[in-house]
Amino acid sequence: MIFFLLTLLIVAIIIMLAFLAPKRYEVSRSVIIDRPHSGVFEYLKYIKNQDHWSPWKKKDPNMKQEYFGIDGEVGFIAKWEGNSDVGSGEQEILEIVQNDRIEAELRFVKPWKSTSHAITKVENLGKMQTKVTWGFSGENKFPANIFMLFYNMDKAAGKDFEEGLNSLKALLEKA
């Protein structure tokens, strides 16, 4: 009887945690780049350019990469397979709104399977300045959502987005 009650209690706690745990995540960061808006957008719409500023490329400069389709166009897919810091997966361009945003789907395979919506948005601030916002969002599915009660996705991934945007700023302002 005690075993049954303990089991019931554990199941009840797991269910309660699942209801309390966040169902979605969203992480984004922004930077202001002293370059013309249209030029920044043109650079960003090519996924292969991420190799020059992505924090994950720095974490594994030897990652294996494959490309399918035409870079800078909807349907382009970039696949990667890297070390434990970057895992493996693919990124597909879903939508390009000229001089506004690039939307993509990130399909992670390792270290765990998940799908996220990625967006890179540019905003013309005038005076040769462009605001770039880079981020991703997705759904926390049960039971993984319980883990998110103890893991701050914004803090963990946010620092990588900040590092990447700072590298992008340095790269484009040097050009």
TrEMBL record:
Q: Which InterPro entries match?
A: START-like_dom_sf
What is the protein's given name?
A: SRPBCC family protein
